[in-house]
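Dear H.,

Thanks for agreeing to be a second pair of eyes. The structure we're designing against is below in token form, covering all 103 positions.
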């Protein structure tokens, strides 16, 4: 069984037992959370599509860890104008492990 969930303004395809990196969430490591914005739930040929969300569906997850991703470099340049800007940042993330999917 799989589901497509929305969290942090992005959509993710999740399956039971898989891990995923999402935008930083306010939850302690080791705690359980429920994702309730489910856009689609499917198992083989049986697929439920929400309008916009599937009613009664939820995904149970366990917070594994918090961390920071690798550095992203933003480089802007305008040729022949002596304009160059270099900026970088590291994005915070939360690592979730999907424990169960209810449809």
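And this is the sequence the design step returned. I haven't edited it by hand at all.
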């Amino acid at each position: 069984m799989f589901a497509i969930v929305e969290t942090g303004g992005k959509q993710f395809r999740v399956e039971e037992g898989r891990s995923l990196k999402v935008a930083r969430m306010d939850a302690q490591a080791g705690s359980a959370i429920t994702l309730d914005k489910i856009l689609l739930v499917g198992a083989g040929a049986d697929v439920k599509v929400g309008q916009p969300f599937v009613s009664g569906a939820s995904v149970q997850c366990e917070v594994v860890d918090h961390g920071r991703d690798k550095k992203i470099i933003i480089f802007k340049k305008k040729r022949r104008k002596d304009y160059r800007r270099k900026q970088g940042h590291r994005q915070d993330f939360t690592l979730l492990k999907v424990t169960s999917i209810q449809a």
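Two observations from my side: The chain has a mean pLDDT of 95. DSSP finds no helices and ten strands in the chain.

Warmly,
E.
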